[in-house]
């Protein structure tokens, strides 16, 4: 069975006798291609769903796409590990400051203060929260699973961001933040009972907020009472599209039958003009982004990269599911746009930069090593070499395998995906501090390591 190894960084793995440097790979072409298709469809649908001043909307959207492409390129070129340090905290503080300014100086639109000029700061809060949570859990791997106190800081940060978005009010954004937090908590290995408690508290909080803000209360009331004009018009448009749609630009709901069609209900325009097959294509593209993003996360060379890629892709897919659910009448209106497609600048630029970070993570993924070139962790030679390098591990009170993997994690030379691939995930639940059972890294000498004879260039 092949073993996954780090790509693009130098590391030492004493138990499999390998010390080598591999060049970074190219970015994930499938993920990039799916994103380009969605952005292109977005340009077409923004023009088609605005029956008046369509050219003006298209020009503005082209400018926003250009800004988004620049953000995508920057995100692809900027190494994601830079955000694992203090930079994520600086971004979080700046985001909180901008949200406070929005509440004080923001422009009121439809009864809500969500804008500073042409910028919607709440969109930046989603990415900054993912960066912070991924960095927090990556710095404390193995410490946050069995102690509720360890997850209080990320809960406090999430609570502050949710509070600042609720005051605007932006209930839909608050729901996205809550769901994203729970997703990262689950991926980080937080106990289910803790997540259940957090979920119940969050549900109770949102029920209270619904009754505090009349705007949200009216939306929920209209949804349950059947007085859902926008959603009924949305379903009429989607249903009239049948299998193949009415054709590009031939939709009728855009003639003021369905308000905010280019933003909150653009999926209805897609269903009306391209039919069931066009709507299915959009869903498949988002599903491709989710699956490729999770695959990139699975083969990331850092635990931070694993959490970051997983959090971003799950957030984008959840974003799309909520928008589609609203247009189909399954969920009450939330005001959330469809990623990469709906008319808007802040969400587009933020989402493209976030996806650029996922593409950057894909450049530093694992590659396959031919069988027979390396000894596995279960082999006798691997255990013999490890005992020679770490003589006292067998007397540490833990199994040799657990001690070895804890060592590989402690010196940050073993990629996280190797441990996941070898099914040694239980290592992060070992409560004993590393310093009590592990020798210093100097006890391992590179001279005792044997390089592999051949490296397969096959990608995952």
TrEMBL record:
Pfam families: FTSW_RODA_SPOVE (PF01098). It comes from candidate division WOR-3 bacterium. It catalyses: [GlcNAc-(1->4)-Mur2Ac(oyl-L-Ala-gamma-D-Glu-L-Lys-D-Ala-D-Ala)](n)-di-trans,octa-cis-undecaprenyl diphosphate + beta-D-GlcNAc-(1->4)-Mur2Ac(oyl-L-Ala-gamma-D-Glu-L-Lys-D-Ala-D-Ala)-di-trans,octa-cis-undecaprenyl diphosphate = [GlcNAc-(1->4)-Mur2Ac(oyl-L-Ala-gamma-D-Glu-L-Lys-D-Ala-D-Ala)](n+1)-di-trans,octa-cis-undecaprenyl diphosphate + di-trans,octa-cis-undecaprenyl diphosphate + H(+). GO terms for biological process: cell division; peptidoglycan biosynthetic process; regulation of cell shape. Its main location: membrane. It comes from the Bacteria. Belongs to the SEDS family. FtsW subfamily. InterPro entries: FtsW/RodA. This is Probable peptidoglycan glycosyltransferase FtsW. It is an enzyme of class 2 (transferase). The chain crosses the membrane at residues 29-50, 62-81, 87-106, 118-138, 158-187, 194-213, 265-291, 303-328, 340-359. Its EC number is 2.4.99.28. It is found in: Membrane. It is a multi-pass membrane protein. Keywords: Cell cycle, Cell division, Cell shape, Glycosyltransferase, Membrane, Peptidoglycan synthesis, Transferase, Transmembrane, Transmembrane helix. One of its GO terms (cellular component) is plasma membrane. GO terms for molecular function: lipid-linked peptidoglycan transporter activity; peptidoglycan glycosyltransferase activity.
């Amino acid at each position: 069975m092949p073993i996954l190894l780090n790509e693009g960084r130098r590391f030492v793995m004493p138990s499999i006798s390998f010390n080598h440097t591999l060049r970074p790979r190219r970015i994930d072409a499938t993920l990039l291609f799916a994103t380009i298709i969605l952005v292109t469809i977005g340009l077409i649908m923004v023009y088609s769903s605005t029956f008046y001043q369509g050219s003006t909307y298209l020009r503005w959207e082209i400018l926003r796409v250009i800004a988004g492409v620049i953000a995508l390129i920057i995100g692809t070129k900027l190494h994601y590990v830079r955000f694992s340090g203090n930079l994520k905290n600086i971004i979080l503080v700046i985001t909180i400051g901008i949200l406070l300014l929005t509440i004080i100086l923001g422009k009121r639109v439809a009864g809500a203060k969500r804008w500073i000029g042409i910028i919607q700061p709440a969109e930046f809060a989603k990415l900054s929260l993912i960066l912070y949570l991924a960095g927090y859990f990556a710095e404390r791997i193995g410490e946050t699973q069995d102690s509720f106190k360890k997850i209080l800081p990320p809960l406090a940060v999430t609570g502050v961001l949710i509070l600042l978005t609720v005051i605007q009010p932006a209930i839909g954004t608050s729901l996205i933040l809550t769901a994203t937090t729970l997703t990262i908590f689950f991926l980080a290995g937080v106990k289910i009972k803790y997540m259940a408690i957090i979920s119940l508290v969050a549900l109770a909080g949102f029920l209270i907020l619904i009754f505090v803000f009349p705007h949200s209360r009216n939306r929920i009331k209209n949804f349950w009472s059947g007085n859902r004009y926008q959603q009924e018009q949305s379903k009429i448009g989607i249903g009239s599209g049948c299998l193949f749609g009415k054709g590009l630009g031939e939709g009728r709901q855009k003639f003021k039958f369905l308000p905010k069609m280019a933003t909150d209900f653009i999926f209805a325009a897609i269903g009306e003009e391209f039919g069931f097959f066009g709507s299915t294509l959009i869903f498949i593209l988002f599903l491709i982004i989710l699956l490729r993003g999770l695959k990139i996360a699975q083969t990331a060379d850092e635990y931070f990269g694993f959490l970051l890629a997983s959090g971003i892709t799950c957030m984008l897919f959840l974003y799309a599911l909520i928008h589609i659910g609203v247009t189909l009448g399954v969920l009450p209106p939330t005001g959330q746009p469809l990623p990469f497609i709906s008319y808007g600048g802040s969400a587009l630029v933020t989402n493209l930069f976030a996806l650029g970070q996922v593409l950057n993570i894909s450049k530093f993924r694992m590659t396959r090593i031919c069988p027979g070139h390396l000894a596995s962790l279960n082999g006798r030679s691997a255990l013999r070499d490890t005992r020679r390098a770490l003589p006292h591990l067998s007397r540490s009170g833990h199994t040799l395998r657990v001690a070895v993997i804890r060592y590989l994690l402690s010196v940050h030379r073993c990629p996280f995906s190797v441990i996941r691939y070898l099914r040694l995930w239980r290592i992060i639940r070992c409560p004993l501090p590393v310093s009590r059972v592990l020798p210093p890294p100097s006890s391992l000498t590179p001279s005792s390591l044997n390089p592999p004879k051949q490296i397969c260039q096959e990608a995952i």
